[in-house]
């Protein structure tokens, strides 16, 4: 094997690893955003239920 071929293999492997890390980071960011949104929504829903006219706070 010549050195150019080996260098290309190493480069492709590294690029694949970096792509996988970027995908994992993106998924984690989306998951955090979704968790934040659902926490905000569920607490907002609880506020609406507690503040409906004619209801006693639970």
Name a few traits of the molecule.
58 residues, mainly alpha
Radius of gyration: 25 Å
SSE string = H
Give the beta-strand count: 0
What portion of the residues fall into strands of 2 or more residues? under 5%
Arithmetic mean of pLDDT? 82
SS element count, helices: 1
End-to-end distance? 74 Å
The chain-level structural class is mainly alpha
Low-confidence blocks of residues: none
What does this structure look like?
With 58 residues, the protein is mainly alpha-helical. The protein contains one helix and no strands. The N and C termini lie far apart (74 Å).
Quick summary of this structure?
This protein is mainly α and 58 residues long. The protein contains one helix and no strands.
Q: How would the blueprint of this fold be written?
A:
Elements: H1 3-50
């Amino acid at each position: 094997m010549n050195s150019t071929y080996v260098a290309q293999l190493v480069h492709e492997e590294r690029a694949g690893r970096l792509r996988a890390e970027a995908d994992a980071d993106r998924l984690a960011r989306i998951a955090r955003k979704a968790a934040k949104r659902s926490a905000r929504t569920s607490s907002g829903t609880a506020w609406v239920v507690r503040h409906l006219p004619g209801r006693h706070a639970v």
